[in-house]
Each structure stands twice: as structure tokens, then as C-alpha cells.
Amino acid sequence: MASGSVSDGAVTGGRGVVTRFAPSPTGYLHIGGARTALFNWLYARHHGGTYLLRIEDTDRARSTEPAIGAIFDGLEWLGLAGDEPAVFQFARSDRHAEVAAKLLEAGKAYRCYLTQEELAARREKAQAERRPFRIESEWRDADSSTWPSDASYVVRIKAPRAGETVIADEVQGTVTVQNAEIDDFVILRSDGTPTYMLAVVVDDHDMGVTHVIRGDDHLNNAFRQLVIIRAMDGIEGGWPDPAYAHIPLIHGADGAKLSKRHGALGVDAYRDEMGLLPEAVFNYLLRLGWGHGDEEIISRDQAVAWFDLAHVGKSPSRFDLAKLQNLNGHYLREADDVRLAGLVAARMSGPVDQGLLARAMPVLKVRAKDLNELAAGAAFLFAQRPLVLEEKAAGLLTGDARGLLARIAAALEGAAEWSAEALEATLKGLAAEWGLGLGKLAQPLRAALTGQTTSPGIFDVLVLLGREESLARIVAQAEPAEQA
Question: How confident is the model at residue 484 (pLDDT cuts 50, 70, 90)?
Fold first, then answer.
């Protein structure tokens, strides 16, 4: 489906379940939006349906190309790209206006000439009388012959005044609103541009959306949108109601509305700044408000097989950054080493041997929770001599330790085999021969080889660096410190 190309009001048929994710490109793709996209994607996949994207770019002042790019980039990273090219709402303004004209012609909407000043005065009067303000426009049933020829107007929908509207929400359950509470709201502004309410309804219909799955902050909108949908009875063959599922919002760990201080960043920040893997974020978002028994680690295929709306919770879920990072650690350990090496190499400065990095991954990734930690842990592999020692590592290299390093270097120089097993046997033999614990050898060795006090196992470090580089680093630290 080309951008804005759904034409003639024809419902896209024959695809079964159709869901959509419809972000406004006024900023980054935030974590709540990513979860909404995920639930829409999963529901469509579970039912063998279609998942669509719509960019709601009608706010021209705030919609930006960088934001659109960031949304597409974030969705692509999570594997949630649309099944068809995205629809851009602004490009469909003529279609929205066409529907408004049809409603007007059918007497389901009306021209309202009330001015902003008149509306403000009525609102103030209602407040003074301590009663709810409701639009009571004298233009609702006015004959078209009385319409002023030179005054600006908006188009309002004729909302039902009696009875009630009931939504059987697939998450919230049955929700009822008295129709008297719904105003004759504007569907076309005085400049002829459509309002959000109209554009959403027309686009959902024309895109063939069968299930509207979105945040529960839109629940009130559903009742207004149904007014438009049901007003189309007898127009274009009538429009079916979609199924609704309004998902509770995400809160911080303290129960307050999610904000940046809780970790409510753009999806790109989880990837670029925090170094998380998409499968970890996918799994975490899945479990943020939905569950399948006690399962915590859920693959993409399992998620598709198991996902339903019945197990989406009705209460706000709580975002826990530490839990997300721990989950990421699991996925790091499961990840392909060559893939990780490529991701980590991009975070390192200077020349990097990705082959060596890949060989190091099995011993590096067991200690890390994110790609940044992996990059920091791998830095010793490509450090140039003389190594810059961390303060604690330098503190280990006392005179006695440097003497030990000289003796270790001499012993290792003649090692017949440079493997973890052979090196372990050699060093354990030296420790026993010198009457020392293995740690007394390993600590200064680690400092000399990595410049740090923490690293993978010392035998793994020796193998990864190789004989020549290992001996050069040990000898460099075994030499007496320069005199001041």
C-alpha cells in the first residue's frame, strides 16, 4: 500500500485480522509506543493477519522527518516493520474531507457558525452555574437556506442525544458511556482540514483495520469515533465497528507515570546508548502487561503462538530497568558470537580484529549485561603497549609481584604448548613449586596482561592474546619501574 494511497473508501478485504500501529512523528519512538506496536504485530501474526503502519503526521508544525526516520528505525530494529508501506495521514486529507462532505449531505453532520467568542462565553456561563459544558448549537438543525454566505464555519457531527454507547473492550471489558455526555464534536475545521477524530476513523476503515489495539488513554476517543462510524450507516454501504482493545499504560517502578527518570527513553537509546539487544527488549516489552503462566524467557516464535488479548492485564504495568538489563544479559549469553563481535566492534575505538573478538565472546559475554560492558571487557585485547593500568591494577604490581612476573615470563617462554589446559598446568606447577597459592600468580598476571583487576579467566586471557603478545606484556611489567 503506497503512502496515502488507500482509495475510494474501499475496504482492504480478504486479509482476516488487520491491526495497525499509528504513531505521531512529533518525537522518538518511546517505549510505550513500541509495546503497542508489538501487541499489534503479535495479534496479527497469531491470527495469520496483517499488521499495518500509519504515520499520523497531520500536526504539520511538530511532525518532522527525523522523527519519522527514528520511528521506522526503531520498529525495524525490533522486527516490527509493517507488512506494507506505511500510510501517511496528511496525504489523505482530501479523502477525510470527502467523508465529512458525505456526512453533511446525509444530514449526519452540520455546519456550525458559532464563533470562538460565543463558545467561550457559554463555557464560562456553565462554569459559573457549576454544570458540565455541552455544545448546544442552534445550527444543528438549521435549514441550509439560513447558512451565512460569508462567515467561517466548522463541520460538527450530530452525536446521539439519548441512550448509551457500549464497547465490549477485549482488555477493559464492557465499558458504557451515556450518549448525553458526548458533544457534537468538530470533524472538519474552519480551514477545511480534518480533525484527528475524523482522520483516524476514515483511515482505519479504508485500511481495513479490524482490531484497534492501543493505550487506554484513547478509550474515551473510541466512543467519539464510534459516533462517526455509526453515522456512516447508509453511506458507502455502512462501516463496521472495529474490535477495541485498550491497553493500560506503563508506570515507573514507583507507580508514578512513566518518565525519563524511570528509563522512558526512545527505543534508539536502548540500542545505542544502553547497548541492549532487540530480542531482549522484545521479550521485556512482551511481558510488560501480558503473561503466559510463569514463563519469563519467551522467543519470538513462542510469543506469536501464545499471544492473546485475554491475558493482557487491566492494571498499569511497572517498568523495571534492572530487570530489562538482567534479561539482556541472558540474551547476550545466547547470542551468536560473530554477530556480537560485529556489534561490539562498532563500540570500540581503534583497529579491531573481529575474528579475535568473536573467539573471545564465549568468555567475555558470561560477565556482561550489555554491549557497552562487552566492549569495555574486550578492550584489553587491542590495547597498545605500554598498557595504561587502572589504579587498583597498578597497586598490585609491587616489587615482589614484578619479580614474580619475571620468573613467570622465563617459565612460559619455553612452554611447548600454548593452550588453556597446558598453561593452567604450568602455572599451577609453578605455584606449587614456589609454595604460593595460584592467586598470587594470577593477580599480577591479570594486571600485567589486561591493565585491570577483573577479566576473563587468566588462562583464557593468555590464549586470546597469544604467546608473543602475552610474553611482551608480562615482560614489560616485570622490568623495574623507571626512576623519577
Answer: very low
Check: CB of residue 116 under 8 Å from CB of residue 194: no
Instruction: Report d(CA 456, CA 446) in Å as an integer.
Output: 9
Query: For residue range 79-106, what is the model confidence (pLDDT) as tens digits?
Result: 999 999 999 999 999 999 999 999 999 9
Helix, strand, coil percent values for the chain (each to nearest 5) = 50, 10, 40
Element (H or E) spanning 53, and its range?
strand 50-55
CA–CA dist 97, 202 (Å, integer): 10
**Full DSSP string of 338-390:** HHHHHHHHTTS-S---HHHHHHHHHHHGGG-SSHHHHHHHHGGGGPPSSPPPP
Check whether domain 383-484 has CATH 1.10.10.350, yes or no: yes
Question: Do 37 and 77 contact (CB within 8 A), yes or no?
Answer: no
Task: Judge whether 392 is annotated as a binding position.
Answer: no
Task: Examine domains 1-253 and 383-484 and report if their fold is the same.
Answer: no
Confidence band for 480, pLDDT divided at 50, 70 and 90: low
**Average pLDDT value over all residues in the chain:** 92
**Per-residue pLDDT tens over the stretch 62-71:** 888 999 999 9
Handedness of CA 403, 407, 412, 413 (dihedral sign): positive
Domain 1-253 - what CATH class?
alpha beta
Maximum pairwise Cα distance, the chain: 110
Q: Are strands 164-169 and 87-88 parallel, antiparallel or unpaired?
A: unpaired
pLDDT at residue 381 is higher than 60: yes
Q: Amino acid identity, residue 257?
A: K
290-310, pLDDT tens digit by residue? 999 999 999 999 999 999 999
Phi, psi values for residue 95, rounded to 5°? -65, -40
Per-residue HEC secondary structure of 245-291 comes to EEECCEEECCCCECCHHHCCCEHHHHHHCCCCCHHHHHHHHHHCCEC
Burial profile 163-181: b = 16 or more Cβ within 10 angstroms, e = fewer: eebebebbbbeebebeeee
Q: Cell numbers 539482556 correspond to what residue?
A: 328
User: Which residues, at least 6 apart from 105, have a Cβ–Cβ distance to it below 8 Å?
Assistant: none
Domain segments of the chain: what residues?
1-253, 383-484
The CA distances from residue 94 to 5, 9, 90, 101, 284, in Å, are 11, 12, 9, 10, 41
Which of the residues 260, 314, 392, 428 is marked catalytic?
260
The set of cell numbers assigned to 461 is 586471557
* Residue 428 is among the residues annotated as catalytic for this protein: no
Residue holding cell 467561550?
A: 120
